[in-house]
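Run log, item B.
One chain of 477 residues. Sequence copied directly from the ordering sheet:
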Amino acid sequence: MDSDLTALTARQLAAAIADGTCSAREAAQAFLDRIDAVDRNGPTLNAMLEINPAAMEIARRRDESSARGDDRAPLHGVPIVLKANIDTGDAMATSAGSLALENHRAVRDAPLVARLRAAGAILLGKTNLSEWANFRSTGSISGWSSLGGQTRNPYGLDRSPSGSSSGSAVAVAARLAPLSVGTETDGSIVSPAGACGVVGIKPTVGAIDREGIVPIAASTDTAGPFANSVADAALLLDALGGPSSTHATRSGLKGLRIGVLRHGAKSHAGVAAALGEAVDALSDAGAAIVDRLYIDVPDATYDAEYQLLLHEFKDGLNRYLACHDTGFGDLASVIAYNEAHAETVMPLFGQEHFEAAQACEGLDCPAYKAALAGSVHVMREAINHMFRTHDLRALIAATNGPAWKVGESERRRISSSSIAALSGYPHIAVPWTMVDELPVAVSFIGLPRSETDLVGIAMAFEEARGVFPPPAFVSGA
């Protein structure tokens, strides 16, 4: 077999390996060759931080298992890449993109990684990310890390891939792997999915085990899948331990009540029009549209969210560092390292978030309790009220606007991520159309553990959309 294997969906690839059309080793080699041609050379996307030196050995063992006639797991022989803030008990580093953790190698797999191995996946490598998952600085640049440099958007090489799971989204968009795993605190799965034209699922917080992931905030952190189709993303979600959605079907949308949040799209005429077309497609497919809704929460909710993240980041990172042999005992020691190595670690932006988090007093202080009540609790109450009042099955909103140029301000960008992020509710981003020759996606948001419903809706929506344009690796002007 040749590199055409990289054009297959994950399900198609698993079937090809199962019926002997190709071997796991041929599949792994095809994607390694693709990484060399597209990520290391050619457009030079810089999505991959490192390749797993054991990848071909894992593939060989998968082929031996096939030859013995062993029972096949759902992802038998399918290559997968992981965001570099997820522990693997092997030769690959868990760096969070930082030079500070360049040599940090975990002694055991994160539980989600153990599940992927048990599902038969080949861990092909780790992906670049916005350093420390975009929580080091107020001036952070999406897709940039001191260890990996700048990841590039395959639709426009001068455009942001968005963050923080930049490399994971780009890897799937550019067919460096059929599946990838990212993490989200607020937007870090759905935003790069939208910017890079792939499907991203942020599951209900707590549905996937979060042990062994460099943390930001326990209230909102979760891992989740990227794929080129909703069905593939659901397959990976199930393997990760999320709510089983692999049996969701395109059963049609007739009578399903879907609420529309148009407010976020209003700042860009092209995105507003695209969202309108998406709503029309849902209506044509039989959905009952409840239009022009608005999540009514005080502006102070988002200020409280920031305080929540600061407090939980300090607590969570200190706990992670205490359990791992990284050479750092706590956040304060990482701050000191960054200051001592500012020329290489902080050439483009500082560590204002780190410093603000270090000043926090802990999770028992009144400021944290007020932040939790004023953010998570307020958003959940608002969403629950909306779903009850209008008898909704899901919400739809614009996920993103056209990707901005790398280095431009990332403030005030179109985003619907905070709704599901703060509440901890599930969120699926599905590519919809091209605006200004760049991908724009729509978001489906549901109540806790409603992933199966959301996947079914997203599959029907995806079918109505048809084939999405692949990236053209367009150079900037």
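Observations after the first pass:
- The chain has a mean pLDDT of 96.
- The chain is about 40% helix and 15% strand.
Flagged for discussion on Thursday.
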